[in-house]
Amino acid sequence: MLCTLILYSSLRFYEEFKNSKETNLAHFIRTYQPPITPEHHTCVGLGLTLLDRLTALDHRFKGLASGVYLVSCEETVDDITSYIHDDPHPSSVEKEHVMVALKLDIAGRKGLLLLDPGYHIARVVTVMEDELYPHTGWFMQTQEEHCRKDYNYSFSANSNYVIWKVKERRGDGPEKLSHSAVFVARPFLTPVDVTERRNLVYNFRSLLSRDTKGHLTAGIYFPVLDNTVGKFTLFYDVNDVKKREKMSFSDFKTMPNMLDKKQQQMIEECNKLLGFRSGELYAILHNLANLLSDSSFISQLLLINRDINDVAENN
Prior knowledge:
The chain is about 30% helix and about 30% strand. By secondary structure, the chain is of the alpha+beta class.
């Protein structure tokens, strides 16, 4: 079981902002150093951990340490053709995701291995320039009751990028195709300063647990909204049946919480499946309720997020 604790980064960021006595969040975030600790299982933390573990295998697989490297990813690019025409420009990209890569040369055939612990893709993806064996091609990443996602990775014409395609179908709706751009020509040297920092002000938060296949088993998720504390969705699997419930953060502002028996049972079951100590999920939700009630902080956070999105969209 792997638990993605993106919320810990948010809570620590908020705590340090309040302790700093700074009132301008834009000023604070420019100098804030996002921590990467065992509790911060973001894509950056997971990628760096995987990089360390692979590097440690160099005594068995000579050259592995010098071959593996972090790569940056720009997600959901509207005009993928224009984007991959040039190298990324620092002032106009988000780089909200990272992966681990290893270049391949099979009898002169060029390729790449991609590992994505941040999205919990439970396989090593092989990307060959000629798209012949052992090229991975399309594969099903997730299939749940109301959603299916298929992934595909292929090189751009100049081989500087890997284009990550996602086909998504929800219920009986139409299939949607999106493109993300993974820059593989050079290592990504600033994952903490860029990616980790950018994701601190993202307007969607989650706390997720997955099995070894990358399937979701338990967690919570919610949008960050202006002028309202909002609600979160709690879910977990019991005997392959997904339990799901919307709850209000306002019910967690006081301790003990104002929950009915069913909600208490669901919180406790989710807490257990997340691998937390008794009462830990209650405490996280209580702290989140206080964070989301800080209207000044939330308004500034959402403004920074919009500004970042505008810069990326306009460039």
